[in-house]
Specification:
By secondary structure, the chain is of the alpha/beta class. The longest helix has 31 residues. α9 packs across α11 and α11 runs parallel beside α16. It contains 17 helices and 5 strands.
């Protein structure tokens, strides 16, 4: 009798599951669970593949990538824009990406004529812009037309030259479809590095002083006066002006990247975690290029990240080295841009902003 009742109960459940429609919430929940399980499976497969490469397994990485993971045939070349306002190891990342024979990434506003001459920093498209008055930096397709003259590659890209969020906002205007990515860094460490670099340029080049100091003061006179009043400053020094500039540059770009849901990778892990960088490489090449053993070996030979403008060992040390008004201004801008939670999700500790006494030695 018990067995009969159990069978009836099971039949009733199966009947309702089959013939009673699911609610919208149940359907969405099932879909999310399915996506999560698929992502976990793909993640484990990627980890296993990387382990095989590092263990010098003879099986080719490309042979192991499933058809669903690989980009569809016929979409080469891939065009990739990796955005960064600067001071996120973009030169190192560009050199690391270019370790592969089938990809070419330009860095910043310069394009190397060939990868065989890595020390040649000729501003190729700048020169062409001077020769063609119709060239416009906002013409992203024109930018990539010039990059494609550098050779025959499966992937063409640029790091630090273009704003990824800006392209996402106006994607329909371009003739190409772009893979969009961005690089972030702990905002305090990045700000100090940015400030040191810009002040070096201001002191070394007169034209930099004109654009970073004189023109900025002229164009933002009201804002500078307002900041002086709000933080009780008699006068803002040149370095103070550059500090304000850099805060705006960093937070404007980071906020837009978060808003447009651009995939964001952190500089800290890209320069220290091989698995993380391989994942970044696969995304940057739209899974079209095999990160083979030759590429892995070349990665280990890339020169170290430039640290000329890095001085403090910890972000908290950087923050505590600032005058009190800069600490207050930075904290206020983090709140104004609503970035505290976003930075925290990337793994950045900003507790020093609200508890500086805990970090004082």
């Amino acid at each position: 009798m018990k067995i009969f009742l159990r069978k009836c109960a099971i039949s009733t459940i199966l009947f309702f599951q089959k013939y009673i429609p699911k609610t919208r919430i149940q359907i969405e929940r099932d879909a999310l669970i399915g996506e999560r399980n698929l992502l976990l499976k793909e993640r484990q497969e990627l980890v296993d593949k990387i382990d095989r490469i590092l263990d010098k397994d003879p099986i080719s990485f490309t042979d192991m990538i499933t058809k669903t993971e690989m980009a569809q045939p016929g979409i080469s070349p891939v065009y990739t824009v990796i955005g960064s306002a600067g001071r996120t190891a973009t030169q190192w990342i560009t050199d690391a990406l270019n370790c592969h024979d089938d990809v070419f990434f330009a860095h910043g506003a310069t394009v190397k004529p060939t990868k065989d001459v890595p020390t040649d920093r000729e501003a190729l498209f700048l020169r062409m812009a001077l020769e063609d008055s119709k060239f416009d930096f906002s013409d992203v397709d024109g930018f990539f037309d010039i990059i494609e003259t550098c050779g025959d590659y499966d992937v063409y890209g640029c790091v630090h030259a273009l704003n990824a969020a800006g392209i996402a906002e106006h994607q329909e205007k371009f003739g190409r479809q772009f893979v969009l990515m961005a690089i972030c860094r702990h905002p305090i460490r990045r700000l100090n590095s940015f400030l040191a670099r810009r002040m070096y340029e201001v002191r070394s080049f007169e034209f930099r002083r004109e654009s970073f100091i004189d023109e900025y003061r002229l164009l933002n006179n009201d804002m500078i006066a307002s900041i002086s009043r709000e933080y009780n400053l008699a006068e803002l020094s040149d370095e103070d002006v550059v500090f304000i500039q850099v805060v705006q540059v960093i937070m404007d770009e980071d906020k837009r990247n978060f808003n447009y849901q651009i995939p964001i990778y952190t500089m800290e892990r890209l320069t220290s975690d091989l698995d993380y960088f391989i994942n970044f490489f696969l995304s940057a090449t739209n899974y079209l290029v095999d990160p083979d053993k030759k590429f892995i070996k070349r990665l280990s030979e890339v020169s170290a990240v430039d640290t000329r403008f890095e001085h403090m060992p910890l972000a908290s040390d950087d923050f505590l080295s600032w005058p009190s008004w800069r600490q207050d201004y930075f904290r206020d801008q983090i709140e104004r841009y609503d970035l505290f939670k976003a930075y925290k999700q990337l793994g950045y500790d900003l507790s020093v902003l609200y508890n500086p006494e805990l970090f004082k030695k």
